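Narrative of activities, Objective 1.

The group set out to show that a structural description can be obtained from nothing but a protein's sequence at a throughput compatible with the screening campaign. Below is one input-output pair from the validation batch, recorded exactly as produced.
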Amino acid sequence: MQVVDIDRIVVATDDVEETSGTLSERLDIAFGDRLTLTTETSAGANELQSVIDRNGIGLDLIQPASETGEDAVSEFVEKNGTGLYAIAFQVADLAAAQAELAEDGIDPVGEIAAGGFTEYLYHPRDFDGLFVFLAEFPHAYETNYRLDALRDNE
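Output recorded for this entry:
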């Protein structure tokens, strides 16, 4: 598998406005508008609110869209507080990467597809406790490709 780059870091929080405000104020990082997203995993749907940095850093902040507490992000935040939730890696060939992991018995637990990009989500049990996304698409933060595709799917 050819990993091209770390695409972005995903931070889970219970309040994207507060967390993005803190980062903006203290580190001068700008974030885009809030997006409403749905991700499907083997554990079910996750309704999320997200803000994505506009500086090309590769930082997404996510929070549960509802307060039911019955989704993976809510459980994570309740257990750990605000913190690192996932790392997304850009790969040269997503199908080849998926096939290589499948040979080792590692299958994605979810998929995000919007516009012309696709990401596969892999469970933390397969990566020593780290939630991993693999993606193949033009780099999101140089072209805003991923952001525009996600907005189109809202």
